[in-house]
Amino acid sequence: MTFSSGEVLTAANLNALQDVTILTDTSVTIATGSGVVIPFPSEVIDVGGWHSTSTNTERITVTNAGVYLITANVVNIDALGRLLLNVTKNGSTLIASQDLSHSGSVNDDSSVAVHDLAAAGDYYTMSVYHSHGSDRTADRITFAASTIYVS
Predict the structure, then answer these.
(1) Contact, 73 vs 141, CB < 8 A?
(2) N or C: which end of the chain has fewer CB within 10 A?
(3) Where are the strands (E) in 8-135, listed by range?
(4) For the residues of 118-144, what is the DSSP string, one character each?
(5) At a CB cut-off of 8 Å and minimum separation 6, what does 138 contact?
(6) pLDDT higher than 60, residue 13
(7) pTM of the complete model
(8) What is the Cα–Cα distance from 1 to 14, expressed in whole angstroms?
(9) d(CA 77, CA 29)
(10) Which residue has the higher pLDDT, 115 or 97?
(11) C-alpha span between 61 and 148 (Å, rounded)
């Protein structure tokens, strides 16, 4: 879709935009000392059909080769020490990581954003690790992908 100068953005324009998926969960328990791939049993929006709520709920799977913006966010994990937020492609290739060390609680957003050249069928997952010493609950977790360019 191409916009012209002075064009009014309408609902039809928005509906014709490229695919986007936004997943969120209100609370996930993260065991200490092990990374947890976050499942997303529901969707906020899934224009491209990139996410399933019944199988592989931890995945966002793109349907076209292109460049995508992938973001991951976790808020309010009461974890002293190390908090590691990773985004992987196809289950093994690390494409983005946020590694935070804290002497107090992590109550602010910890997020990762990355542009990635993807092939049709590539999928992305988000994982969280902490080293606090006991299991912790991560609140307001968000994982999203949006099309920047389709090849």
Answers:
(1) yes
(2) N
(3) 20-30, 36-37, 43-46, 60-61, 66-75, 81-89, 93-102, 110-118, 123-130
(4) E-TT-EEEEEEEE-SSS-EEEEEEEEE
(5) 27, 28, 29, 30, 38, 74, 75, 76, 77, 128
(6) no
(7) 0.80
(8) 10
(9) 9
(10) 97
(11) 15
